[in-house]
TrEMBL record:
GO molecular function annotations of the record: tRNA(Ile)-lysidine synthase activity
Domain of life: Bacteria
Keywords: ATP-binding, Cytoplasm, Ligase, Nucleotide-binding, tRNA processing
Protein name: tRNA(Ile)-lysidine synthase
Residue numbers binding ATP: 31-36
Keyword presence, Zinc: no
Length: 320
């Protein structure tokens, strides 16, 4: 059995999949919500016989098991193989983050065991708009403002997001027209979550168009990819190993953002990944000609536009 889907939505999804996953079997993460059910319908129509679905049961709510069974029944009607991946996420701080980490790890193992090229998730234009606004509020740079990427590797799982230019309302309509009743997760309306508050803002402010915001995030992602290529070229010319660590040369010739990214690459060799504010303070010190230490690394500005990056000496222990 295949369910009819709108021709334009199906064409857009097929084109996105052809670009993101041109070959091989496609995995789909289906929670049972309207977004992932719409992705299931669209993908089953676009790639009949080349789709396999999985539902992750986090066991965080009593309803999780029944929801996973519901998805399994819908997949059976579509002729899509389906697996339920059961997890146990212990209680404690950062529950949502730990559940996400465990979910992608399980999906990665599942995809590998079935020879799936990638796992598609149903992130859409509204998700992208929310992410962009949240990161703007945090003062993120270009990388953060690129939002949700079309391709990513998370915990060993190759992830694609073919619906980033599609509005949530369209996905809901697809599921409604199919006669399916999606799962409603109460966490999605919990005002304690930042994303819920941003979602409410988007709904209330007419001129904040999620689809336009999503297009802006896509343009920023393209700019970030172009900058990555420029940084790689600059890395070969300006960043080199030294006897004690690494040297970054010709600092005055480098645009600030390329300088910043090359410094991050050098610091990573010392297992040091500073936060945004830490990196800003380090750059300010170096621009003033002052040596500075961050994490396990010491960075020393030298004559001739050189920064020398070395292992920082161990900190003195105070004894009483």
């Amino acid at each position: 059995m295949t369910a009819a889907v709108p021709a334009d939505a199906g064409t857009r999804l097929a084109a996105a999949l052809d670009r993101l996953v041109p070959d091989g079997q496609l995995g789909i993460a289906v929670s049972g919500g309207p977004d992932s059910l719409a992705l299931l319908l669209l993908a089953a129509s676009a790639r009949p016989g080349r789709v396999r679905a999985a539902t992750v049961d986090h066991r965080l709510r009593p309803e999780n098991a029944d929801e996973a069974t519901m998805v399994a029944d819908l997949c059976a009607k579509l002729g899509v193989p389906h697996d339920i991946l059961s997890l146990t996420v212990g209680q404690g701080a950062s529950l949502q983050a730990r559940a996400r980490e465990a979910r992608y790890a399980a999906l990665g193992e599942w995809a590998a065991s079935h020879g799936l090229a990638s796992v598609a998730t149903a992130h859409h234009a509204d998700d992208q708009a929310e992410t962009l606004l949240m990161r703007l509020a945090r003062g993120s740079g270009l990388g953060g403002l690129s939002g949700i990427r079309e391709r990513a590797e998370i915990g060993g799982c190759r992830v694609v997001r073919p619906l980033l230019q599609t509005r949530k309302a369209e996905l809901v309509e697809i599921v409604t027209d199919a006669g399916w009743t999606p799962v409603s997760d109460p966490a999605n309306s919990d005002p304690r979550h930042e994303r819920t508050r941003v979602r409410k803002l988007l709904a209330a402010v007419e001129w904040l168009d999620p689809q336009r915001l999503a297009r802006s995030a896509a343009a920023l992602a393209e700019a970030s990819e172009a900058l990555d290529a420029a940084v790689e070229q600059a890395r070969q010319r300006h960043l080199a190993p030294s006897a004690d660590g690494m040297v970054l040369r010709d600092i005055p010739l480098l645009p600030r953002e390329i300088r910043r990214r090359l410094l991050l690459a050098a610091l990573a060799a010392f297992e040091t990944r500073p936060s945004g504010p830490e990196l800003d303070r380090l750059l300010a010190a170096l621009d003033e000609g002052r040596r500075a230490t961050v994490g396990l690394a010491k960075v020393t500005p030298e004559a001739g536009g050189v920064w020398r990056i070395e292992l920082a000496p161990p900190r003195r222990q105070l004894h009483t």
